[in-house]
Amino acid sequence: MIDLNVLFIVTVGFIAITVFLLVRLFILDKRLSILFSGKRAGDFEDIIDEFVKTARRLDERTKMIAQEIDNINERLAKAIQRVHTVRFNPFKDQGGNQSFATCFMDENGDGLVISSLYSRDKVSVYAKPLIDGKSEYELSQEEKESIDKA
Asked: Is 135 exposed, middle or buried, given 0-12, 13-18 or 19+ CB atoms closer than 10 A?
């Protein structure tokens, strides 16, 4: 037969577990009541749908921003980024460093170098295009220095 002490211990154990589970159920019910106060299941479906729509809009916006950043980076590569001016005196017997060579280049080394030769009688200005930091026209030492430093 079954010992009464064992039966008593098993019964008390089941009662303790049942009381524990009822307390947990009560706490869970209280939390759910607070969470769902004034809400219906349809309201939560609408909220979830709104979150999904918002996430999709944010994803589309993120893709659009990424494309715009790529566009800006492409345009920025073509913008003048490197500039340097070298002043010099081409005629040792006249004046100071009134002449100059200024280089304007983009990220790829494309651009131009502008030179000005100053003398007492006249000022001459020259512009030479640059592709990859080089020109098809002969460059003076000062123009080369301006390109190198830019």
From this structure: middle
Q: In degrees to the nearest 10, what's the CA dihedral of 3, 7, 12, 14?
A: 150
3-state helix, strand, coil in the chain (%, to 5): 55, 20, 25
Handedness of CA 88, 90, 93, 95 (dihedral sign): negative
pLDDT at 37: 72
State both tokens at 85.
């001016």
Sign of the CA dihedral running 128, 129, 133, 134: negative
Q: How far is the C-alpha of 6 from the C-alpha of 20, rounded, in Å?
A: 21
- The structure's pTM equals 0.57
Handedness of CA 85, 86, 90, 91 (dihedral sign): positive
Q: Read off the pLDDT of residues 90-110 as tens digits, 9 standing for 90 and up.
A: 877 776 788 899 999 998 889
Across the strands, what pairs with 112? Answer: 104, 129
Average pLDDT, the chain: 88
Distance CA 142, CA 60 (A): 52
Q: What six digits make up the tokens of 143?
A: 């123009």
Whether 77 and 69 have beta carbons less than 8 Å apart is answered as: no
